[in-house]
Write a structure and sequence with these properties.
The complex is a heterodimer of chains A (134) and B (542). With 134 residues, chain A is α/β, with parallel strands linked by helices. Chain A is built from 5 helices and 5 strands; from the N terminus they run E-H-E-H-E-H-E-H-E-H. The two termini of chain A are 16 Å apart. In chain B, the strands form 2 sheets. In chain B, strands 1-10-9-8-7 form a 5-stranded parallel sheet. The chains are: A alpha/beta (134), B alpha/beta (542).
């Protein structure tokens, strides 16, 4: 079985990395191959990396409130590159009222602060399972 | 899961999970006078462990200084007035990350972050709108901004004072100006793509030099210990790193030919208060003692004021939980109490809704009320250092002093904070801190009510969450800056920017040409870009 590959990145200028760093280490320990792109990325850069690295999931982290704007942009770019089938996951300080909106835009899953490690891992693993069945 | 009745709770009994402080110091059953080394310290006397003033809050309360800033300068101005009306006694202006990175709103990567966690500001006009109707000679203001942007924002502030006929020696406030903590903590990942660190410190010193010589009541530096701490470092790391950072600046200010007694009293700190009540109080007490001893013994200051460790305090945002957010009111109140008992000069009580977003006006008002209740109803302000002489608090202060000094020595041995930062030592500490933080919560070594103990069903938080800015705000900021650039004398702007570039290249003080550039209608992003060019540096973002 190939390794589960996930891209982790922050978009725009938001520099907060506590969450994404902790989640990155959890996923590595759980056997994921984490492609950590760090800070200050554009949606284009992340989508291209997802294609080049053949990642199963794109995981993006937010703290400042730019999640709706970037969800729309990333989905747009994913469509233009024909990879809208890939799973897009958000995590971070996101008001619960925005979760539904993010899912309407096309985000598969949203993890809010305090989500335990095992829930994040099991949800991501089942997502990859879904992709294989398709 | 729904919480069930625990009928065994009484018989089983409850007790602390362990007997260590949050930073891992083992504590005994109880303390006696035998545990206290020095029994003679007095508030307002060297080494100032018990506070920098003999009468402390009897003479003057701490300043209620909630951070404000979001959206356009006009929107921020309204909120600044709202918090002043609600009872705030000082201003604390935060700028958005676009400004913090030295960019204008029309930078390609800026759009999504314009005005989100601070005010968007780019031109002198913006500064006029931001402070419209606020007397700069009466209200003390902290500007939360670091080099290179701090130089531009400060230039705007000074020019605004001049325009309003206020002399520079009447200005009261602080420019944070700490090069290591522009955005979040001192991680290389966050800072290095934006500006070279040595140059960043150098131009920060340029601004400090100007303020030391020209604005006598202005604080030239607020060492941002808070942002470091919030990257999951512990209390002793926060304190030790903050002290080592201060030393880096002091050395350079002396090298610049300034007299330490002209600037030491104008260096402040911005500290965190987490949930471990006594440890946080002891930390601030220990920092006061360490600072006084360091300035006296190592830097040989002569003025008493130079020995005063003065600190703004913000209660921890990291300690707030998204689950059951109303619990955060209790957390923030306890932390604010700790800040008062520790002897803070100003306090920002983080609002209960900040685990989700910037605070609503209502939540900010509640934070101010918490401080007012503590100040006016509880009586805790009537005696200086009421915890002084507590066997435990005195012992813990000594213990933390020892631990902090040990860590400071380690940093010095590694070549000082800048060196540690450059070689990745600081990043490693932060990585370890984050791992430790996550593990302790996961393994329930640290217990957080509603999160990893006593969890209860709660679909959605029973609070309203701020949607502070209008949907057209970001576009309006971009349109504004583009329009502003069209109505200037382009050749004048170009000449002014060339002068910034030239003086930076020569290594002269860049603050003077920056003042001219702002006056010539150059934007914040353009001035910062001229500085980056002078240091042969290209942004590494996007």
């Amino acid at each position: 079985m190939t390794k589960k590959r996930i891209i982790l990145a922050k978009l725009g200028l938001d520099g907060h990395t506590n969450g994404i760093k902790i989640v990155a280490s959890w996923l590595m320990e759980a056997g994921f191959e984490v492609i950590y792109m760090g800070l200050y990325n554009t949606p284009e850069k992340v989508v291209k990396a997802a294609i080049e690295e053949d990642a199963d999931i794109i995981g993006l982290s937010f703290l400042e409130g730019s999640h709706i704007y970037y969800a729309e942009r990333v989905i747009e770019v994913m469509k233009s590159y024909g990879i809208e089938g890939k799973k897009l996951v958000f995590g971070g300080v996101i008001p619960p009222d925005d979760v539904e909106r993010l899912k309407e835009i096309g985000v598969t899953e949203v993890f809010l602060p305090g989500t335990p490690r095992e829930i994040i891992i099991s949800k991501l693993e089942s997502m990859i399972g879904e992709r294989d069945e398709n | 899961m729904k919480r069930e009745i625990d009928f065994d709770a009484y018989i089983r009994g409850e007790r602390p999970k362990n007997f260590k402080t949050a930073s891992g110091i083992e504590v005994k059953e109880f303390y006696t006078i035998e545990d206290v080394k020095d029994k003679s310290e007095i508030p307002g006397q060297y080494p100032f462990t018990r506070g920098i003033h003999r009468d402390m809050y009897r003479g003057r309360f701490w300043t209620r200084r909630q951070q404000t800033g979001y959206g356009t300068p006009e929107e921020s101005n309204r909120r600044m007035k709202a918090v002043l009306r609600a009872g705030q006694t000082g201003l604390n202006i935060d700028v958005d990350v676009v400004v913090k990175l030295g960019l204008d709103p029309d930078h390609p990567l800026a759009f999504g972050d314009i005005g989100l966690v601070g005010t968007s500001i780019s031109t002198f006009e913006d500064m006029e709108k931001l402070f419209d109707g606020i007397p700069l000679d009466k209200v003390s203001t902290t500007l939360i901004v670091s080099p290179p942007a701090s130089l531009v924002i400060m230039a705007m502030y000074i020019l605004l004072a001049r325009k309003n006929g206020i002399p520079e020696d009447a200005l009261m406030g602080t420019v944070m100006n700490d090069s290591f903590n522009q955005l979040v903590g001192p991680t290389k990942e966050a800072e290095l793509p934006l500006f070279p660190i040595e140059a960043n410190i150098k131009i920060g010193i340029d601004l400090m030099e100007y303020c030391v010589k020209r604005i006598p009541k202005w604080n030239i530096l607020n060492v941002n210990a808070y942002n470091m701490r919030e990257t999951c470092l512990d209390a002793k790391e926060e304190a030790a790193f903050a002290m080592c950072i201060a030393k880096e600046y002091i050395k350079r200010l002396i090298e610049r030919g300034l007299d330490i007694d002209d600037f030491a009293g104008r260096i402040g700190f911005f500290s965190d208060i987490g949930m471990d009540f006594f440890e946080e109080i002891a930390k601030i007490r220990a920092m006061r003692r360490i600072w006084a001893k360091m300035l006296k013994e190592e830097f040989k200051v002569k003025k008493e004021r130079s020995l005063w460790f003065r600190t703004a305090i913000q209660t921890s945002g990291l300690a707030l939980t998204a689950k059951e957010p109303l619990n955060n009111i209790a957390r923030a109140t306890i932390q604010t109490l700790a800040a008062v008992l520790a002897g803070a000069q100003s306090i920002h009580t983080t609002s209960y809704d900040e685990a989700y977003a910037l605070p609503t006006e209502e939540a900010q008002k509640l934070s101010i009320r918490i401080q007012e209740i503590l100040a006016y109803e509880t009586g805790i302000t009537k005696v200086a250092d009421p915890l002084g002489g507590s066997y435990f608090v005195e012992w813990l202060t000594d213990k933390l002093e020892e631990e902090i000094l040990k860590l400071m020595e380690e940093v010095e041995k590694e070549g000082g904070f800048l060196e540690c930062y450059k070689k990745g030592w600081v990043d490693e500490r932060i990585a370890k801190g984050r791992k430790r933080y996550a593990e302790r919560i996961e393994k329930k070594e640290d217990l957080i009510v509603g999160v990893n103990i006593f969890e209860d069903d709660e679909e959605k938080p029973p609070i309203s969450i701020s949607k502070v800015y209008s949907s057209t705000m970001q576009k309006s900021r971009i349109d504004y800056v583009r329009e502003y650039k069209k109505r200037r004398d382009t050749s004048k702007v170009k000449r002014a920017l060339e002068s910034v570039y030239r003086e930076a290249k020569k290594g002269s003080n860049v603050f003077f040409p920056i003042l001219d550039a702002v006056e010539s209608m150059a934007t914040l992003g353009e001035i910062c870009e001229a500085l980056r060019r002078a240091y042969d540096f290209e942004l590494r973002i996007g």
